[in-house]
Design brief:
The complex is a heterotrimer of chains A (479), B (262) and C (256). Helices cover 38% and strands 37% of the residues of chain A. Chain A is α+β, with helices and mostly antiparallel strands. Chain A folds into three domains: 97 residues; 112 residues, no CATH class; 150 residues, Beta Barrel (Lipocalin). In chain A, the strands form two sheets. Chain A has a ten-stranded antiparallel beta barrel. Chain A has a seven-stranded mixed beta barrel with strand order 1-4-3-2-6-5-7. Chain A is extended. Chain B folds into two domains: 181 residues, Rossmann fold (3-Layer(aba) Sandwich); 70 residues, no CATH class. In chain B, the strands form two sheets. In chain B, strands 6-7-8-3-9-10 form a six-stranded mixed β-sheet, sandwiched between helices. In chain B, a hairpin with a 2-residue loop joins strand 4 and strand 5. Chain C is elongated and about 65 Å long. Classes of the chains: A alpha+beta (479), B alpha/beta (262), C mainly alpha (256). Chains B and C meet through helix 2, strand 6, helix 3 and helix 5 of B and helix 4 and helix 5 of C.
């Protein structure tokens, strides 16, 4: 081989390899596969989507994203290069979806109704990012706003002693409402219990019957035949039962009886359908939520407080879900001493020397340890934190002020206005964040009730989202 | 061609110290001296393979180290240098070796070059070996091919670096005769370095003895042969008793000349 | 103590001298590139010697590198259930990093050392002096074709190495690990952009330049006889490889 021939061969081979690599990398096709089809999709949010991400219809890969740009109105425009075989019709929409463990994002197209007119090449598709957690949190934010308005209105009308009076009345009303609800449940408890008991008895009988049949079969193999003949008898009886059942359902069909009326009423039907629909929507939203849950920040905390006068401890486990900066949902579980109040009646019989007896009844109250639940919506506005919702299983609200980038915090919580002969539960406290994960707290609990008032001292641990992620990231995933 | 007060040291060792040397047109100077005394170094200064620490090297009145690199190459074209082992380019055939200066510095056609190569080979009595590789040649042949390459451009000055060292007496005789013939044909000036008396008496118009970094004596071959100067006599008779004490041998010039051509 | 300083001082001076020589020769080479006479034939000969003759060793290296890469990333990615990304990782690593660096190192071992040996023996047999005496600039005559040819040829070898490395990864992933061939190929190219390849090729050209100039310098500055040639050859490989790895770091920083 001459020098020239060697160089020639070398160059040809290299150019071939280069050509193949370039064609593959740039995804250029010739002839039938050449991409002539394209469309633009307009999204509010393309986070995670990238150049060259796949485009799929019903999960089938039909092209790729060929450039993403920002539109002047702050939305995103993705250019999609599609296989020529893809036909888009009017009503086609694009959706950003994710696939697999690593959340590989892609664009899912619905090609539109085949009966509708075909879209021209390069058409602009409306894109949706799917119903996700963001939408739900937006909804919750709106609710929160309403709540805030209500509470500010309340603050206006409940100022002063007159307001307090009003408040007490409202709280009384609320208490009474809750009481009547409980009574209602109690009253029906008998029915429900009876129902459950019947059911239990029924199943027990059934079990027994089955066992008996088994036993019978075992004991009288010879008599099985006669049993079988007896079966005819049984089936005949069953038939009559079925007949009567038929007559019942017939009655239902014709709208006789209450159930029949209910089931045959169109409006009921519609209501049920609506209910089912809303359930379905809820499920869809939930699945969307779960898909987005990884965007949610979670803080976990644990703290204990010691009330020095009452000599008791409280323990709290706190979970803050932070969908976005400045807003959070708090779920707190507390283990309290004296959390549950129980009225007790003690009677003692005294026998006097003269032989006469007297029974003395004393009433008392016993407080039991209890788990309480808090569920609150919170906002963080600069250095002020507002919370409202359920505090230790009662309605309430809290305000906190932070200083020096949350090194110090001063706040107050008020809740539980329904205790008999007691004022609302007001707790004032200050908190020092000694480190990002550790804090010390102290203050006065139940300030408004001299009998229960006590200074307290506490300490807590808090893990922020990044700590948790670091923690879970280091745990090996078993295969 | 004139060297004035040329001084050169390698590290702490001074090889040439204020050496003066003049060679007129057509003259043949033979330099002798003990091994390692700096004869090759001197020769390399003449053609500008080494740059003197001080002093000047002039070719036809032009200072070799004061002109541009391009002019220096022009001056070098006046030289033909033959190296100790021939220094043939072993990546090329004999013919290509001789043709090398012709293709680089002339615009001759291929035919003219081939003719000139054949002519040069004939002059060194090695006709028709163009296609051979340098590795196939004996030491004497290599040197003569080296001569052929040196004379290809018809130089005005020929430099021979130990043309006969390591050759048998018969080959030495051939080499000496070839040198004579070349001188007769081309009439160049020539500087030859040797410690072979056969060469001295074969080719010299003048003989110089190099010692202590200077040309000690400068005389005709006849005077040289009969000189009573102990250093010359020692050289001629080969009596080490008469010679000055041996000095530390210089480093191989090849090793040092890297710094001449940067 | 004095000896200590002397030792280090001399070492430092030697390093500085080497670096200085590198840049002096770089300048002379540049000058040689732009001034006539040009030597396309000599360059073509070097293309064959540096490029064509290096093809087998480069291909073999790339094939096994690609294979090992697939095998190793599989071991790691399996733990995250991200096996689908092996193709991308192999292709990206080959194109951006391993293709240029390994080819550079292989060519240093094959051609850089050969340049040092050739120029070294030319130096000790006075052939370089002979060149000068024939009014030929040895840097231009010897360096320029080698450096030009190597700069041209290493990126070309890298293209081959890239292709073969991806093939090696494919063979291991599909043949041994049982990946789906179509999905593997799709994943291989889905995340590549031309920039990945061009950055690799720019690196390759820089490596070619470095290894050839270092190889030539080591040979050109050979001192002493046959032993010197041996030392130069070793030095050319060591210095060439080192400069490639160091340059790789900075080039990656610049090109990233």
């Amino acid at each position: 081989m001459t020098t020239t021939a060697k160089i020639g061969a070398f160059f040809v081979v290299v150019l071939l390899a280069l050509g193949v690599l370039i064609l593959k990398i740039e995804d250029i096709h010739f002839g039938k596969k050449a991409r002539t089809n394209s469309a633009d999709a307009h999204f509010k949010d393309v986070a995670g989507l990238d150049d060259k991400s796949a485009v799929r219809i019903a999960g089938v890969r039909v092209g790729k994203v060929d450039g993403i740009s920002l539109r002047p109105d702050g939305t995103a425009l993705a250019h999609l290069a599609l296989d020529p075989s893809v036909e888009l019709h009017q009503g086609a929409i694009a959706q950003v979806r994710s696939l697999g463990m690593l959340g590989d994002k892609y664009v899912e197209l619905s090609a539109g109704d085949p009966a509708a007119p075909r879209l021209p090449n390069g058409a602009l598709l409306e894109g949706s990012s799917g119903t996700g957690f963001d939408d739900i949190t937006k909804l919750a934010a709106d609710i929160g706003k309403d709540l805030k308005e209500v509470s500010s209105a309340m603050a206006g009308s409940f100022g002063g002693p007159k307001g307090e009076d009003k408040l007490n009345r409202i709280v009384d009303n609320l208490g009474r409402l809750a009481e009547s609800l409980r009574d209602l449940a109690d009253a029906n408890r008998g029915n429900v219990d009876a129902m459950l008991a019947n059911l239990r008895a029924l199943s027990a009988q059934l079990l027994e019957t089955v066992a008996r049949v088994d036993r019978m079969l075992d004991e009288n193999r010879a008599g099985v035949k006669s049993t079988v003949s007896n079966m005819d008898d049984v089936t005949a009886k069953l038939k009559t039962t079925a007949d009567s059942l038929n007559s019942i359902t017939g009655k239902i069909d014709t709208g006789q009886g209450t159930i029949g009326k209910l089931l045959n009423d169109d409006e009921t039907h519609k209501n049920i359908n609506d209910a089912l629909k809303s359930v379905k929507e809820g499920v869809e939203q939930l699945s969307g939520t779960l898909g987005r849950i990884n965007r949610l920040q979670l803080d976990i905390g644990f703290r204990t407080e010691f009330a020095s006068r009452l000599r008791n401890e409280k323990y709290y486990f706190t979970l803050d879900a932070i969908p976005r900066e400045g807003k959070f949902y708090r779920l707190e579980i507390g283990a309290l001493p004296n959390g549950k109040r129980e009225d007790i009646l003690e009677s003692s019989t005294v026998t006097f020397p003269d032989g006469s007896q007297q029974t003395i009844a004393t009433t008392g109250q016993r407080y039991l340890d209890q788990f309480v639940l808090s569920l609150q919506l919170g906002y963080k506005l600069k250095n002020t934190i507002l919370r409202a919702g359920i505090i230790e299983s009662r309605g309430g609200a809290a305000i906190e002020q932070t200083f020096k980038a949350d090194t110090f915090r001063v706040g107050g919580e008020i809740w539980d206005f329904t205790r008999p002969d007691l004022n609302g539960h007001l707790k004032l406290y200050t908190r020092w964040n000694a480190s990002p994960n550790l804090y010390v707290t102290g203050g006065v609990d139940d300030l408004l009730n001299p009998g229960l008032r006590s200074p307290f001292l506490g300490a807590g641990i808090r893990w922020k989202d990044e700590d948790l992620k670091a923690l879970f990231g280091s745990i090996p995933i078993p295969k | 061609m004139k060297l004035t007060k040329v001084t050169k040291s390698f590290g702490t060792k001074t090889v040439l110290s204020g050496l003066d040397l003049t060679v007129t047109r057509g003259e043949s100077l033979v330099l002798v001296g003990q091994s390692g005394i700096g004869k090759s170094v001197l020769l390399k200064h003449v053609i500008g393979l080494l740059k003197p620490d001080s002093g000047t090297v002039e070719i036809d009145g032009e200072d070799l180290w004061k002109v541009s690199a391009k002019d220096r190459d022009r001056l070098r074209r006046k030289f033909g240098m033959s190296f100790q082992e021939g220094a043939l380019f072993d990546s090329m055939s004999v013919g290509e070796n001789i043709a090398f200066p012709l293709t680089r510095h002339t615009k001759k056609s291929k035919k003219e070059i081939a003719d000139r190569v054949a002519e040069c080979l004939e002059l060194v009595r090695l006709p028709g070996i163009e296609e051979k590789r340098p590795s196939e040649l004996s030491g004497g042949m290599r040197r003569r091919v080296g001569f052929a390459r040196a004379i290809a451009l018809q130089p005005e000055i020929l430099l021979f670096d130990e043309p006969t060292t390591g050759l048998d007496p018969i080959t030495t005789d051939v080499v000496v005769k070839v040198i004579e013939e070349m001188r007769a044909r081309l009439k160049p000036s020539a500087i030859t370095i040797t410690h072979d008396l056969k060469v001295v008496f074969g080719v010299a118009d003048r003989v110089g003895l190099l010692s202590g970094g200077k040309i000690l004596v400068d005389m005709t071959p006849k005077e040289f042969e009969q000189s009573k100067d102990p250093r010359v006599a020692a050289f001629v008779t080969g009596d080490s008793e008469l010679a000055p004490p041996e000095t530390e041998p210089e480093r191989r010039p090849a090793a040092a000349s890297a710094e001449a051509h940067p | 103590m004095n000896k200590f300083f002397e030792f280090f001082g001399r070492g430092l001076l030697n390093v500085m001298e080497g670096v200085g020589r590198f840049f002096v020769l770089l300048g002379l080479t540049m000058r040689g590139v732009v001034t006539p006479p040009f030597s396309p034939v000599a360059t073509a000969r070097q293309v064959v010697r540096v490029g064509v003759d290096s093809v087998p060793v480069v291909l073999l290296t790339a094939l096994f590198t690609g294979g090992v890469l697939a095998l190793q990333t599989f071991k790691g990615f399996q733990r995250f259930h991200a096996e689908g990304y092996i193709g991308s990782v192999v292709a990206l690593s080959m194109l951006r990093e391993l293709g240029p660096v390994l080819t550079g190192l292989m060519v240093t071992g094959r051609a850089g050392s050969a340049m040092a040996a050739e120029l070294g023996s030319m130096r000790v047999t006075e052939q370089i002096d002979a060149l000068i005496s024939l009014a030929t600039d040895p840097v231009q005559y010897l360096f320029v074709p080698r450096v030009l040819a190597t700069i041209l040829v290493v990126p070309m070898l890298v293209v081959l190495a890239d292709a073969i490395g991806i093939l090696g990864g494919y063979l291991v992933a599909v043949g041994y690990l049982g990946a789906n061939p179509v999905i593997y190929m799709n994943n291989t190219f889905q995340y590549l952009s031309m920039e990945d390849m061009t950055s690799g090729l720019i690196k390759a050209a820089a490596f070619g330049f470095l290894l050839s100039l270092v190889g030539c310098q080591c040979g050109y500055d050979t001192k002493g006889g046959a032993e010197g040639v041996g030392l130069s050859t070793t030095k050319a490989v060591v210095m060439g490889s080192l400069s490639i790895l160091i340059a790789d770091f900075f080039l990656t920083k610049v090109l990233f």
